[in-house]
Amino acid sequence: MSKRRPLIAANWKMHKTLEEARSLAREVRQGLQPGFNSEVALAPPFTALAAVALELAGSGLGLAGQDTHWERQGAFTGAISPVMLKDVGCRYVIVGHSERRQYFGETDRLVNLKLKAVLEVGLCPICCIGESLEERQGGHTLARVGQQLEHGLSDLGGLTGAQLVLAYEPVWAIGTGLTATPQQAQEVHAFIRSLLREFLGAAAEDVRILYGGSVTPDNAASLMAEADIDGALVGGASLKSASFLGIIKAAG
Ligand code: PGA
Predict the structure, then answer these.
(1) Cβ of residue 212 lying under 6 Å from some atom of ligand 1
(2) 0.90 cut: is pTM over it?
(3) Which of 85, 113, 109, 108 is nearest to 98 (CA)?
(4) Residue 201, strand partner residues
């Protein structure tokens, strides 16, 4: 057993109206069984952050932004800053999700700027990295993940393990129903931790590395049984309280 407390984070993506978001947050809060071991965080769309913050108040459950701009304020129509996310009650911010990279052209350089901005305001980034299907099939998984990590974390300075969360999300497993096997995931997680040791030294042992990509109540326990898998970033299965609560339960 590692000393890292698992983190189970729900990424609602572009789902949920205000009322739907309130209900789902309430159901998750009320459905948690006493004695669960994990930390739990919800990442609703920006429009529902304030409402979900109210639902979660006093519960210990964390709130997360799904993305952020890298400046604190300015003429950036449509964007949301880390200061605003902190103000609304976020503890975490997802940075560099593959959908941001794929559909919005986010580069490793941009991810690096966002990580710095999030850390600067005292929030904890959940930085996503992962290979495409072609990269996996071509045998480039570790090279790609290593490159994303090195560029993403460059010039971040000394961090404690608690300041950073990583999420390994193979692009081919996101929303497809194809999950990496626990062995496939563990291989990459162990590699990520070995690189983290070069960046952060001993603090690398405290960084939580989540797995994401078609996590369900059925596969969560076997994934999280692996030595370097410290929780999950959950998309589809987080949109219904029963399946999300099932994952939290499976995490122990
Ligand atoms: P999924 O999404 O669980 O629907 O595969 C995970 C994610 O994109 O974070």
Answers:
(1) yes
(2) yes
(3) 108
(4) none
